[in-house]
Structure prediction request, 444 residues.
Amino acid sequence: MRTSRRLAAAWLPVAALVAAGILPGRARAQAADEYVLILVDRSTSMGDSAVSGATTPAFYDNAIAAAQNWVHQDKLARKGDVRPSRAYAVWAFLDDTCSRCPRTVCGCPNTQKNVKQVWPLAAGDCSAGGSSSYETTTGMCVIGGDEAGDKLYDLLKNKVLAGLGKQRPGQHSNTPLAESLCLAVEKLQAAAHDKPKLLLLETDGGDSSSTSACSGYGSVPLAGDAFNKKNEGWGLTIGSWQENFLRRTSRIGRFPPRPDDPTASAAQEKAAITFGRGVLLPAEKLPATLQLRVDLHYAICDPASPSSAPCGEADRLADVPARELAEKTGPKRPSIHPGELSFFKALAGAMPASTVREFLRVPASSLGVKHKLAGDVNDSGCVDDADLQIMTGPEVWFQRATAPAAAADLNRDGWVNQKDAAILLSTWGKGCGKSATKKPAMPE
Prediction:
């Protein structure tokens, strides 16, 4: 669903994170150089097809592959000659509690209200060897900067995220986007304090069930996809979830909890609630230590097929107040609200080293290459090490399947990863005759 109600809540206290089981609530000495939270949208609309003319892959499949791509980049990234140690956690968000629909009508599974940490869940989840460890105070896995940390990067990429991909989007589930974003920022601030922190978001947008202080109507698009910091609200609709989230993000850390002193901690929370009201002011600043990676998955609605998902869903066509509907009409409108698309672009432009990637629905015929012999990436007539070397090259492996990676997209889902390697290895040696070699292990 795509419309959001605004409730008279005031703040997101850290106690809410503790209650949700996603923040163990004591201060600590941080062991990691950077902190990364991967936030994946599992609401129903993420199950919509990411290609025209086919039912798969879905937006959700693209989201998982895009998150794997980021983790692969982090594995390879260096600052000088050193890879920083990073603490990771993976969250998924949806609301299938029938909060917006009578249970007798929707038959909701009632499994999840907003965000839920899916990894790590215990210290054993971080035991991939080497210098990796589990931070009991943050509930995150710390991946060491040495080569031994590669094992946990591979586990996160190929087991954790791939496993999350098998869970599929929830049925009859709404999208608590605003609330999940605020909880994620709260988590990162509590875990990392003044250390670099990164929030990776995979979503198709459309807040529809947030009930916290960050909830609100959708904002109108920003002029030039940029904030006007000279005005209150920075150009956003006052009271929109975007303005509420931005206000929360700009003020985070001003009133940190005091686990050592319950009285002082209560006073800090009260001050945070008081200061959290009002509007975003011209003089406020976004945190310099927070980086955003936002991947948006959506379609440009086809006027020849106006009722196809997600374009035909009534809740995507109407917003409150009604004046915001004007920005969404027209034969080539995006399935994501233009006000959300504009907001995320402005946010990435205003925060250091942040980025927005847009993954639009594409024709199924545009994905991958159909080879005469499955797995024969270079079309030599033999499936061998030459094909595997092309597939695992630095510009191809775990990358979007555009040139030069398209030939290695064997399952034609738009990405090159272990799904394609499985096809190649299943036909290993075919067409090679006596020159066939022993089949290698699955590449990481």
Q: What stands out?
A: The chain is about 25% helix and 10% strand. The mean pLDDT is 83. The CA atoms of residues 177 and 207 lie 5 Å apart.
